[in-house]
Amino acid sequence: MECEIIMPPDCLKSIVRFISYSTFRIYPTQDQQLVLFADCFPQLIILHSNCSRMVSAKNSGYPLAFLRGVSSRPMEIKVTGPVSCLTVSFFPEILRMLTGLEISALNNKILDMENYFPEDYIHKLMELSSADRLESIYSHLTSAARLKARKEQVISAADYQNLTNVNLSLEDLRKYFAVADHQLLRLFKASIGLSPKRFLRGSRFSKVLELIRNKKFTNLGDLAFSLNYYDQSHFIKDFRYLSGMTPSDFASLCEFHPGKVSEYNTFFLRPSNHCVDPRATKDANPVIC
């Protein structure tokens, strides 16, 4: 897999985390699954394929261009030919600005971009060069942010950057925002659609992916201990729930097939006949809106 990471211009750093272009190599003799792990941050995803629509692991159709809400479960998409992927990862508030919907209502859902962007926007977007396509997306996001920003307190991009310590506790969050328990819950639900506890869980999972991918730990027990998991069993269970695979499987994938794992995003490519624990993928794919 080839992956190019682009950081947003200064004017968009308050709403966009990063942009990536990924091109996946396809086994010529078998279908593939593009697997997107659970993520605390929404994404705008545009897939380029010779298919008119992608198909989920449960055979429901997916649009080629969609918004993915904050997700607590992995998402699997069947790929039947060469595919490239443009991903814009952004801070949760922009999702409300783009759709007019409350963020919590969009958790574990994907939304067809054609329903939330101007008529024929997606069709015209596909015809543009990569640079012009990105410029068009920037312009649309900027307009949405300017017109629909809300006045009440929300978690800002600066706040997210200050909360990168994966060993933060709920008490640390209360002190940081200087609010009571019920106010903290309301703030997180309004800003990201998750409870503070689920946000911390997702942040820790992202750190696990980074450490395994970069081979910072050779012993998964030591990794679990360093990130304050109760024990290795809880660590494995949590990883399986959020990714659809075990940490050992992911470590093996990174070790022997590094070209299939994104260096920055939380997704990868695998054969469709890959053996997956059914407990990990039950009800995993999001609802299409």
Task: Summarize this structure briefly.
This protein has 289 residues and is of the alpha+beta class. 37% of the residues lie in helices and 20% in strands.
Q: What does the secondary structure layout of this molecule look like, with pairings?
A:
Blueprint: E1 2-6, E2 16-24, E3 32-36, E4 43-49, E5 54-56, E6 61-62, E7 65-68, E8 75-79, E9 83-90, H1 93-99, E10 109-112, H2 121-126, H3 130-148, H4 157-162, H5 170-177, H6 181-191, H7 196-213, H8 220-226, H9 232-243, H10 247-256, E11 267-271, H11 278-281, E12 287-288
Helix pairs in contact: 1-3
Describe this protein with a few key phrases:
single chain, 289 residues, alpha+beta, 7-stranded mixed beta sheet, 5-stranded antiparallel beta sheet, 37% helix, globular
How would the global form be characterised? globular
How would a crystallographer describe the biggest sheet?
7 strands, mixed
Provide the low-confidence segments as ranges. Answer: 275-281
Determine the fraction of residues in helical runs and give it as a percent range. 25-40%
Radius of gyration: 19 Å
Helical segment count: 11
The number of distinct β-strands equals 12
* Coarse structural class: alpha+beta
Strand order of the largest sheet: 1-2-9-4-7-10-12
* Alpha carbon gap, first and last residue: 30 Å
Q: Output mean pLDDT.
A: 80
Strand content: 15-25%
The succession of helices and strands, N to C, reads EEEEEEEEEHEHHHHHHHHHEHE
Task: Describe the structure in your own words.
- The protein is of the alpha+beta class and 289 residues long.
- The protein has helices at residues 93-99, 121-126, 130-148, 157-162, 170-177, 181-191, 196-213, 220-226, 232-243, 247-256, 278-281, and strands spanning 2-6, 16-24, 32-36, 43-49, 54-56, 61-62, 65-68, 75-79, 83-90, 109-112, 267-271, 287-288.
- The protein has eleven helices and twelve strands.
- The strands form two sheets. It has a seven-stranded mixed sheet with strand order 1-2-9-4-7-10-12.
